[in-house]
């Protein structure tokens, strides 16, 4: 091949410096060729390894596509179109995997084998010859040096012969080694060209064969199929972009609208009214778990109502578990030392100590509103409103009725209007005969029985009057001790010792409020309705139990444990008493506080008893009768008490009502003796 330098074999024996210099050039060239071939071998090895990995990956992909039907996807696992499409792709990829396997075999034979042979055989052979040549050259120099130091004496013939033989052998070996070394270096100039071209030729031929094989497998039919799939992919991508755009707009709108919800409390509670018509509720709450006698811990759980049950579910749980039955349960807001916004749920058959304590989660916006919604929802469920067909409508009607109960009632206004018409007609009929209208017809006030926005007192507090205030102030100045209800140790008069009426009843205080028409027959029933509705709306279930002592001088509320008088009502201030028309356990009385005619005010007190509300009202009426006839002796009082124990007349339509004003008619006395006595005094 023209242009290739050679080492002259003829000059190997002479071993001139020029030859050595030319040999050094060839050795540098050999080192450069060896370094380059090593890098090229590494690159081709990577191609071969990548092709093997591609073949294995293609085969694995085909196998996974075939197993798509066996997968169980929670969403979209039954898409037959997708399954059939993937099966067709698996078939094509399986054929491509076979082509890649063939390509890997061809690369191993046509590309990797030639360059491996050149690297492992030819280059290593040159390195071996170079080492042998270096050793023989050193031996030749040693033999020449030894021969040059021989003595000229005849007795050194033997040594001289050995030196000559050594020079001969070393020179011959050097000459032969140099010629073979020169020959290999000259041959390398040719082998380096073939070692570079043969692997590249094999690589290209393998690729061409692979492409031809792929072209034969991917026919026109597959091209049409791929075109259809490409169109479907573009349509899906377009739908995805539209959906992403809509979701981005929704996210922006929700970020703007939900910004106030990120705060735990709403700065303006008027903008977040409480919905009290719910029969279903869900959300995160904290539940209190007792960890010891006095210690407890709070655990965050997801709670939801299901029918009449309260359920809880952990974050990693699939289904919820039952916590408690909400039918006929009681719910109320409570205070806790270590949590805010707490409420308590107590089952109807459970002890108060086993009540369920829940607290609003701090991640929930508007915690106060959230708490009230939970209380209202549980209250609706406890009334079994969820069993109705339109539960929310029924709950709305019930809550609307409760709201109307604490506002001026239109029904009473209508009833007053109808009674006004009857009163006017009766007045006209009486005027036509020349007589005056009856006082009973003109006694009813046509205004509301209870003033609008009248506050309701749910705790036992002594009625405040100027007289009591003055007494308390005087007692404080005198250094006397007064109780929390405004009574001093000297101001409260004791019952007269000759009073023979002492009746004790167990009652529970429901509430009291100021009324307008103290002597109206409807004022107690209207007060009962408003107090019971207010307790239901505000979820107030606690009642203070007391002992009601009825005497001829006063009514006393006594603490059953300490026997301390909580309240004392003078009997002369009690205007009337009445029990509920349907629920005989409920009763109440109207108290006229001390003061002038303009300054006096009437307060109605409502209680719950143990099924003896009528008996308590009878006892109050009897005490009033005895107090009215206080001048009679004890024997006459005993007769009145005995007469009161007889069966009373059937109650009126509006319930047992006793008007106990000082102008009461004497005909209302029970007992024949009391009637005669009243007629004689009249």
- Helical element count? 13
CATH architecture assignment name of the domain at 17-70 and 78-150 and 159-217: Up-down Bundle
- The radius of gyration is 57 Å
Straight-line N-to-C gap: 162 Å
Category by helix and strand content: alpha+beta
Overall pLDDT, averaged? 75
CATH superfamily (homologous) name of the domain at 17-70 and 78-150 and 159-217: Arfaptin homology (AH) domain/BAR domain
Inertia-based shape: elongated
| Largest sheet features | 9 strands, antiparallel
Low-confidence spans: 405-447, 462-498, 646-682
**How is the CATH topology of the domain at 17-70 and 78-150 and 159-217 named?**
Substrate Binding Domain Of Dnak, Chain:A, Domain 2
The first-level CATH class of the domain at 17-70 and 78-150 and 159-217 is given as Mainly Alpha
- The count of DSSP E runs of length 2 or more, i.e. the number of strands, is 16
Strand content: 15-25%
Percent helix among the residues?
Answer: 40-55%
The secondary-structure element order is HHHHEEEEEEEHHHHEHEHEEEEEEHHEH
What is the secondary structure topology, with strand pairs?
Blueprint: H1 17-66, H2 80-148, H3 157-217, H4 220-257, E1 282-290, E2 296-306, E3 309-313, E4 321-325, E5 330-334, E6 342-346, E7 356-360, H5 367-382, H6 391-405, H7 410-432, H8 439-442, E8 456-457, H9 466-477, E9 502-515, H10 523-537, E10 544-551, E11 554-558, E12 565-570, E13 574-579, E14 586-592, E15 602-609, H11 613-628, H12 634-644, E16 657-659, H13 672-681
Helix pairs in contact: 1-2, 1-3, 2-3, 6-10, 11-12
